[in-house]
Structures are given as C-alpha cells and as structure tokens.
Specification:
mainly alpha, 9 helices, elongated
Length: 221
Amino acid sequence: MTTNANADEPPPQKSQPQSEPQPRPRRRAPAGAAVLREDVTDAIRAAVFEELAAVGYARMSIEGIARRAGVGKTAVYRRWRSKLHLVLDIVSALAVQGLPAPDTGSLEGDLRLLYEVTSRALRHPVASQIIPDLQAEAARNAEIAEALQKALREGQDGVATGIVTAAERRGELREGLDHDLALDLISGPLYWRSVVIRSPKLPKGYLGSLARATAGALRAL
C-alpha cells in the first residue's frame, strides 16, 4: 500500500474533460485609503498653511480646512485623524525638505546665499504668520514643540553643517570646531530679527554684513 509523499497534499483528482478557458474576472479598484488622490492631498496641505496664517492653530478647524481646499471633511479625516496630526505631519515635512545647500566656493559667499534664501522664506507672509503662532502653541503642546524644533533645527542643520564642512576642507575654518555652536552662530541672528522681533524690513546691506560677521565669528571658534 502506497502513501502520499506529502500528507498535506490533497488526493489526486480525477481528470475532467477540458473546457474553454474562462475570462478572468476584472479586479475591482481598491477602495478607502488605497486610492487617496495626490491632488486632493496637496490641496489640503495648501489649505492648512492658508488657514493657519488666517486664523491660527487654536481657531483652525477641519471644517475650515476642507472648505478652503474645496473638499469634504471626510477627505481630510481619511488622511489625518485630527488637526493636531495634520499640522504635525506638515511641520515635520519641512525638516525633510530642508534648504538648498549653497556652493559658491567661499565661506562668506555660502553664508550670504543661505541668508538670502532663508530671509525670503521667513519673511513670506504665510510663514511669518504661521511660525510665531506655532511657537506659542508649542509652549502648551509638547508634540507640536517637538515637531517644530525638529523642522526648524534639522532644516537648517544639514545646510549649516555642509557649509562648515566645506569651509574646513578649503582651509577657511579649522577642523573639529563645535558644529552645534556654529549652527547657533549661523542661524540665530537672522531668525531673531525676522521671527522674534519681526523687523518689518532688513536694513540695506544687512545680509552681506551678517555674512561677513558670521564668517569672522566662525573663524574664531
């Protein structure tokens, strides 16, 4: 008496007469979160920035975001379960995007270009409203504080480290200097003037003078 080589295999079936091959059923398009449209997601993200600038985080609502984006509330809730998670996601994404790394061939030139780009970003009407509001909210919400710190610090950190490292290779700065202190020197002054005291207009030649002064400070480290 013989036994099957594999006990989990089903017994052999009797051969059936061959029939015409049947057409395969068409697959239904996936439903739910699997078919989130990118254009809708982009519209919601843009609406969040506009709503934050217009009414602030405390008064911002999913209804207002949906209305501004031209979608239903369900479209927002399918992507984020609350306005907190929506804002955290968008703020955290800023850290990933970062800033373009300058490559002018000199420390002062790199700093000047960085300051020009950063100044435009910080003084944008939307950003100038959103950042102070989120800073105030961060004092009451640890999750927002963590996300905001990550976005602001990491967005500048990679670029500043690149500037310092390139200057070290060129011999403009000594190797092994304190990169955290260098980041504070590079980012602090412009952030202070543009975001904290919210100076309405930078003095003529300010960015060039700041680049020269920062380069001198970095050389002293």
